[in-house]
Each structure stands twice: as structure tokens, then as C-alpha cells.
Amino acid sequence: MNPFAEPFKDKVAAITGAGSGIGRALAVELARQGASVAVGDRDADALADLRRQLDTLGASSMATTLDVTDLDAVRAWVTAVHARFGVVHQLYNIAGIAHVGPVTSAGYDELRRVMDTNFWGAVYPTREFLPHLADSGDGQIVTVSSIFGLVAAPWLSGYDASKFAIRGFTESLRAELLAQRLPVRVMVVHPGGVRTPIMRNSTASPGEGKSALDTAFDLLTITSPEGAARAILRGVRLRRPKLLIGPDARLVDLAQRIGGSAYERVASLAARHLLPSSNV
Questions:
Q1: CB atoms within 10 A of CB 26
Q2: Residue 280, in any domain of the structure
């Protein structure tokens, strides 16, 4: 395998959570760089709109309405993608959701839904695509964790847990593939604030000021989905095992390395004084 080969042109990439945000931006950028793309998302209308955009770019693509928490659906999608293209080189696990609220008020159903989407929704495609990625001889898995896979934020316990979990899974997988000498690279991504619909699409416990949280999220996010997508593809090109996106992610990572668990006290003060919540 030529280590200087073009990493995207004529490659086949599968992307979950492609209907909006980082997933959509990745699909478009990969298409512009000559890749064939298989996109999946629960939002059929968003997928149809994305498919039209990919068509205007002249990309070879397929779009599938997909619930990544459904193992049978994921297996069917993997089979269909391989049958359509004959090979799969790259997998981008982007799908993600959140629930806002303290542990004492977050329902078990909400916590389970977040874990099912963010953790199992990345594990299922990874497991099912892995043989095809290895067979390609030039496989790549990219899984999005979060800045909250580096530090934990109050009121986001389910989200934090899922992002720490997928970080651990991804780092373990990388070590296994190196030990097995399989031709599949693995990168875990920790974005800071990216202007995606994740907060507006999230659920919240009673007593949370959801509209105020949505507004604050929009104001505080400093990276565009397109910027995040370009950073991810640059990380793939450079064969990075770990990628921080945004100055906020780099600052938080540095602060945690220097201060250890001291950040938790800062986070608690921010929650007490800044969160629009009656649950403080």
C-alpha cells in the first residue's frame, strides 16, 4: 500500500448521521474530493435533500433511512452498501443525540436512548463494516466522541458517559487492529462547540430552560460543520489517531491535563450560576 496515495479519490465512504451537521458536511466534502458516499440518517427528508446536493456534485452515492440503534437495520445497510459499491474503504460514525438534565431527573429511557445512539450506534457499524474495511486493504474508521469525552459536564451525564465510552472503545479497537496487523486505521475525534442542530434536537428534563440553552449553544459554538469536516479529513490524510477540533477543545484538553479533576469544581460553579435551570 502506497502511504502517499490519495486518501479520498475513488474511495467508498459510509457516513452515519449524515442528514445534518458534521455528517452532512463530510458527505459533501468527500464527494468533492472524488469519493463515493453511502449516507445514512433517520431523517428521510434531510437525506433526500443531501442526495440532491450530491447529485449536483456528480458523486456516486446512495442514501438510506437508518436507525443506528437497530442492529438488524445496520446489518442490512452494510450489506446494501457493499453490494452497491463492491468495496468499502472508510466509515465515519457521526450520529449523536443528547439529553439535558441532572441525574436525579433524567429518565432511564432518555439515558438509554442517548447511550444506544451515541455508543451502540457507533459500535454496530464499526463491527459490521470492519471485515469489509480490512478487505479493502486501506481501511479507515473515524468516530466522533466529544470535548465531553475528555471532561464531563453537569446536566449531560448520559451524553458524557456515551462519549467517554466510545472514546474507550475506539482507542481499544486501534490497539487491537495494530496487534492484529489489519490494514485499518482508527481515529477518534473530540470536537469542541460545532454549530450543529444537536442541542435543538436534544430532549430535556422538566425544569430546564431549553430555549435559553438552545440560544446559548448557538452563541458559544465557534466551529462550523464545514470547518469540522475539513479538519477531520485533514486528520485522516495525516493519519492522526486522535483529533481535537476547535480552540475550545484544545484549551479544555490542556486544562484537564494540567489541573486534573479540578475542572469539576469549575463546572459545578458554572452550572449553579449560569444554567437556565430550576433543578440547581
A1: 29
A2: no
User: What is the C-alpha separation between 97 and 162, in angstroms, rounded?
Assistant: 10
* 160-184 pLDDT per residue, tens: 999 999 999 999 999 999 999 999 9
Structural domain including 69 reads 12-274
Q: Which three cell numbers stand for residue 273?
A: 450560576
Q: At what angle do helices 108-115 and 157-180 cross, to 10 degrees?
A: 30
CATH code for the domain of 156: 3.40.50.720
CA–CA dist 174, 176 (Å, integer): 5
Burial class (CB in 10 A: 0-12, 13-18, 19+), 33: middle
Task: Give catalytic status of residue 159 as yes or no.
Answer: yes
Measured distance CA(146)–CA(86) in Å, rounded: 32
Catalytic choice (92, 124, 159, 263): 159
**Residue 100 domain-assigned (yes or no):** yes
On average, the pLDDT of the chain sits at: 93
Instruction: Report the domain count for the chain.
Output: 1
Q: Is 221 a member of any domain? A: yes
Q: What per-residue confidence (pLDDT) applies to 275?
A: 76
